[in-house]
Design brief:
With about 160 residues, the protein is an alpha+beta fold. It is about 25% helix and about 40% strand.
Length: about 160
Amino acid sequence: MGRPMTVSDSVEVAATPEQIWAEVADPSQMPRWSPENTGAPVGAGRPLSVGDVFHGTNKRGPARWTTRCTVTASEPGKVFAFDVLAIGVRTPRLRGRIASWSYTFEPVGSGTRVTETWTDLRKGWPDRVAAVFDKVATRGSLFSDFQRRNIARTLANLKAEFEA
């Protein structure tokens, strides 16, 4: 059995799909909810469109890194998604298909079901090599387990903020 390549979770939020999408589709807003994203200055202040490229800055413990991401889906009130295609300390120089992130927004009752999904795009990595790398990078977890916890925290923070 191979390593889990996709992790997803959902939360219902008392806000419209359009309201939530407008914030999530502007990656500069993600530090408000994410436990490790610290910003995305490119495109700040507006929802991004398919093909837009942005750099995301991240922090996990003392480690800091920057990713280059390309928006793959952006439909108001429906979906926002991007692929992480390069990574580096200050500048994302190491290219490769790293991960895909998507957020879908579905009207339910008086709010929205927000689903966040992470997909590991390191398909060419042998499972054993990925497991060793993952455990070093996350201090003990496979990325799928680590991202499952991060997604739960991000969605809980997003819900709390929109419902405050």
